[in-house]
Specification:
About 0% of the residues lie in helices and about 50% in strands. By secondary structure, the chain is mainly β. The chain starts with a strand and ends with a strand.
């Protein structure tokens, strides 16, 4: 997705993961002098990720860049009119876009890889409804440089969560926990 801003042309991308879902990915600005400024390099998951206990009591990661999630549908809408966008016909120009992605979170194979589904050592390739513990609807709203994400969860089975990140901070992982937060007027708020 691209938009023109006072500073230059801003681009936001979504990336298809090997197991079929899509994640918010790179954000970069090409300024008026042609210099590229990378805000998000795409090495982190910008959305939710959970640690969840499997049926065999192993606690493992689920969702985000960790797989164990199945794509059900991905649709694009003009956020002002509600009209569904047919991207197979080419590009669309809108002021705001809604991206609606429906997925299912799966019970994850345990360390011995013998719990569920067709598992290739990295991802669950096939699953049954018995493997699903939650159904999700992600709604992104992209309006120029602003991106909003809402996620609705429908749990279809009880699930024990160890740690949950509802939205990862969108910076390259090489910066780790060390980042500086500034106010709009440039005042350092916190490191």
């Amino acid at each position: 997705f691209t938009c023109n801003t006072d500073a230059g042309k801003l681009t936001l991308t979504i990336e298809k993961r090997p197991w079929g879902t899509y994640n918010l990915c790179k954000w970069f600005l090409v300024d008026k002098s042609g210099k590229t400024h990378m805000f998000v390099g795409g090495s982190t998951d910008l959305e939710y990720v959970h640690q969840v206990k499997t049926q065999k009591n192993t606690v493992v990661w689920s969702g985000g860049n960790h797989g164990n999630e199945a794509l059900i549908s991905l649709d694009f809408y003009n956020a002002e009119t509600g009209e569904k966008l047919d991207l197979d016909k080419g590009k669309a120009t809108v002021n705001r876009v809604h991206i609606i992605e429906k997925t299912k979170l799966l019970w994850i194979p345990d360390d011995n890889h013998d719990s569920i589904g067709d598992y290739d050592g990295v991802n669950v390739k096939t699953y049954t409804e018995a493997d699903v513990y939650a159904e999700l609807t992600r709604k992104y709203t992209v309006s120029g440089p602003q991106v909003k994400l809402n996620v609705d969860y429908k749990y279809v089975k009880d699930a024990y969560h160890s740690r949950n990140y509802s939205c990862m901070f969108p910076i390259d992982k090489k910066y780790g926990l060390w980042c500086e937060m500034y106010s709009k007027d440039g005042k350092l708020l916190k490191t």
